Amino acid sequence: MPQKTLRFFFAAICGKITIKLLKLMKKNATNLPGSVVLTLCPDFLKYLEKPEKIIAVTGTNGKTTVSNMLLDVLTDNGYDCTNNNFGGNVDTGIAAALLKDSTLTGKSKKEFCILEVDERSAVRIYPYIHPDYLICTNLTRDSYKRNANVEFIFNILNDNIPDSSHLILNSDDLISSRLKPDNKRTYFGMDKFTDEVLISNNIVKDITVCPECNNPIEYDFQRYNHIGRACCSKCDFRSPAADFDTIERVFTDDGKADIKIKTPDGTEDYTVPCENTINLYNATAAITALRTFGLSYEQVRTSFMKIEVVKSRFNAESINGKRVVSLMAKGQNPIACSHACNIARNGNEKKTVILIFDDFYDAKTTSENIAWIYDTDFEFLINENILKIIVGGKRSADYMVRLLIAGIPKEKIICCDHEEDTADLVDISASENIYILFDMYNFRYKSNIEAKLKEKIRNASE
To answer: Which terminus of the chain faces fewer neighbouring Cβ atoms within 10 Å, N or C?
Structure first.
């Protein structure tokens, strides 16, 4: 540990004062204390003493979910962990989290730490923080404005992940599974399920040729986009074998799934909060990391049974025979939004789909780049059981064009300028299920739409 400077101590004092002031004002101490310390001492993380064991989580989709699962299970088993789930996953948020659980002299108060880390922040974080275990959930196409393309993000991570970190990688992702080939690694994955409907017709496939010889890739099975199990048509390159492999899954009505995982110690049974394929990968990743970290099968299994589905991300409620389902997707991310559309099309019941994918902050302050909607599989919404698609927001006309290009009949599409007005346009009598597909920053709109729909359903039955 380098010798601390006067600049570091001054920054730490100012950061601690900022945390206290925010608490007095009843505001969450999120990124602001980190912004203060990094402004005053740009290499603050270099001098701040770290917890003895650090688990970091990165990747395009699933970082927050996996981080929360790890925190819940470790806390349930008596581990007192520093974490940044109250704030940002960039350098300022991580600095604030570590400072909050440190003394004024920079000594960590806690032995364990779980950090969600933004992929692009790797260059500012990993030179100072060396995770003992680093989970990468996946690397897929993300927001054009921030992350350009997958190779760009892969190179940032590959150049900055410490050589000492034990990697927990997705064996079904031909991109992220190749990170830091000389690092110690453990792979998680999911076998093809007997009743699984595979998606091989996605618009986006972020890898189509062998990274070794540039010949076409051949899939044993393709789960979605480039996620699946594959090999090169010419050389011996192929998906790595999963050390922890989910081989069975049964979804239940309460947003959970009963799964079997083949592990180095034998087959293990778990009940996990999971309502779709991406979250099944997230649960498998978390279990792999916890077992690799050293928790026993019984410890992990028992703690997972206590974890409830996060209703801010997925919520399904039945009212008088009608089912209202809310499903959050990472906005401006074509992979996440495609998954939401795929979930909405499943099942034979008559349904209405509400789309509020506009980014809240872009709608307020900037002009949104809408190119991503042409990479999103709105074609999944071509289904005779989907009676209406109601789009709300300032960009609703753009979505109308995209839905028409997808081949959805114009008479099925209704647009309005304000998100909350979508509820007023739903014909309650016609649909058994109503799906609300919403951007992660549109939670307030989603909650108001949900409340309006429930009220309409109750009034219609009186």
So the answer is: C
Tell me if the pTM is above 0.85.
Answer: yes
> How many other C-beta atoms lie within 10 A of the C-beta of residue 410?
8
CA nearest 397: which of 411, 417, 379, 419? 417
> Per mean pLDDT, which of 282-291, 303-312, 324-333, 353-362 is the most reliable?
282-291
Alpha carbon distance 34, 88 (integer Å): 9
- The amino acid at 313: R
Give dist(CA 437, CA 446) in Å, integer. Answer: 8
- Integer Cα distance of 430 and 294 in angstroms: 52
d(CA 368, CA 318): 35
Per the CB < 8 A criterion, the answer to whether 336 and 330 are in contact is: yes
Q: Indicate the DSSP class of residue 412.
A: G
Condensed to tens digits (0 to 9), the pLDDT of residues 104-118 reads 899 999 999 999 999
The two tokens of residue 301 are 């299994």
* 97-101 long-range contacts, CB within 8 A, separation 24+: 97/34, 98/45, 98/48, 98/50, 99/12, 99/15, 99/16, 99/19, 99/33, 99/34, 99/37, 99/48, 100/19, 100/29, 100/33
Q: How far apart are CA 172 and CA 198, in angstroms?
A: 14
User: E strand or H helix at 260, and its extent?
Assistant: strand 256-263
Q: In what order do the strands lie in the sheet with 351-356?
A: 314-319, 322-329, 433-439, 351-356, 386-392, 413-416
Residue 148: is its pLDDT beyond 80?
Answer: no
Give the Cβ contact number of residue 7 at 10 Å.
14
Please write down the HEC assignment for all residues of 335-353. HHHHHHHHHHHCCCCCEEE
Contact in structure between 329 and 143 (CB atoms under 8 Å)? no
Q: At what angle do helices 277-293 and 63-76 cross, to 10 degrees?
A: 40
Instruction: Report the interhelical angle of 334-345 vs 277-293 (nearest 10°).
Output: 120
Greatest pairwise CA separation for the chain in angstroms:
72
Token pair for residue 276?
Answer: 């779709």
